[in-house]
Amino acid sequence: MSAPTAVAPSRALAPYEDAPDPGPLLALNFGFARARVLGTALELGVFTGLVRGPRGTSGLAVELDCDTGALRALLAALEQLGLVAGGADESWTLTNVSRAYLVEGGRGYLGEHFADVLAEWDQWSGLTELMRSGGHGGGELGAPENRDLYPGMFAGIFPVGVRAAFRAVRELALPDAGHVLDFASGAGEWGIALAAADPRARVVAHDSRELLDTARERAVEFGVAERFRFVPADFTRDYAGDFPKAPFPDGCFDTVVLSHLSRFAGPDATERLVHECARLLRPGGTLLVVDVMRQGPGQPALHRPMIALSLLVNTEAGGIQEESAYRAVMQKYGVTAKESVTPGLITVLTGERR
Fold it and tell me: Do 316 and 246 contact (CB within 8 A), yes or no?
């Protein structure tokens, strides 16, 4: 860079004062550190340690086996992030949001989900090369047979997902749910919402064994467990290759829910799974396809662009598809696509088996 021409200090300062505020950029560049602060606090059990009431730094450090000075610095950062509150006597308490979502064992605990997201740390380091080479970053996240490796991703998000499920079921004019298959059920929020809306509904939750353990606990929490049956899925055996085959006979369900699987598995796997869901529905039965879907011009993007990029980085073939793509696949396999609702980030598309 050539030496600048000497001018009056006020003239030299003017371009810097007139420039946009760089604060948002600086905060964005430091975002990785904020995620690491949250992850470390969860790993140490900071929030769970504070749930019993105000604690001093020294006492908490002993309990968590931490250096007092280092923990004090972490707690100050957590206070800046709005996750703890410090008192004048250096006592620390939880804020409402951390009490609701960051205390291990609490019904709203999201720590396992955050841990699975933070585990993508190294995978994201390859983003620049992906931009040059194209394709996907790979990884195990998108394959259905690996769902039990990521319980935080597919079941740990229940406190968020269950609100969306109940809201969507209320908004949709669905027929009685009847005999329901909650396919790849995760923690079971969609089966639970349908069972709550229809007292006569009977639900089969179908997923890996570890995720079904969580679904069973949540069904008990909502008082619908006596109407649930839990059938483990062998995704390696039953859903590999071109012709997936669920362990259920043709046309045995009134309602089938395919939720939050398609964007991870990719378009080709989605087509095979929709085909299989159609096989399991009786004529006149209802298919619910639930996922994050690309929105049209003028619609709020919310977090969809970042989710799409995450699928590029962390899966073999995943991505966010448009609703029209799902409608076309449903039509191809004998399901007439009908109403859809988008309560926030997710879209719920309904269809009727012809």
Answer: no
What's the pLDDT band for 139 if we cut at 50, 70, 90?
confident
Can you tell me whether residue 295 is helix, strand or coil?
A: coil
- Find the distance separating the first CA and the last CA of the chain, reported in whole Å: 70
The pLDDT tens digits of the residues spanning 260-301 come to 999 999 999 999 999 999 999 999 999 999 999 999 888 889
Angle at 150 between CA 254 and CA 266, to 5 degrees: 60
How many angstroms separate the Cα of 350 from the Cα of each of 69, 115, 259, 336? 55, 33, 12, 9
Q: How many CA atoms lie within 13 A of 35 on its CB side?
A: 14
- Helix (H) or strand (E) segment spanning residue 167: helix 158-171
Full DSSP string of 104-144:
TTSTT--HHHHHHHHTTHHHHTTHHHHHHH-S----STT-G
Residue 69, CB-side half-sphere exposure with 13 Å CA sphere: 0
Place of tokens 């619908």: 224
Q: Which residues of 242-266 are buried (b: 16+ CB within 10 A; e: fewer)?
A: eebebebeeebbbbbbbbbbbbbbb
Q: Which domains does the chain have, with CATH numbers?
A: 9-106 (1.10.10.10), 144-353 (3.40.50.150)
Is the whole-model pTM more than 0.70?
yes
pLDDT tens per residue, range 141-198: 988 889 999 999 999 999 999 999 999 999 998 889 999 999 999 999 999 999 999 9
Instruction: Report whether 278 contacts 332 (CB < 8 A).
Output: no
* Strand partners for 232: 207
List of residues 6+ apart from 113 with CB closer than 8 A = 152, 153, 156, 157
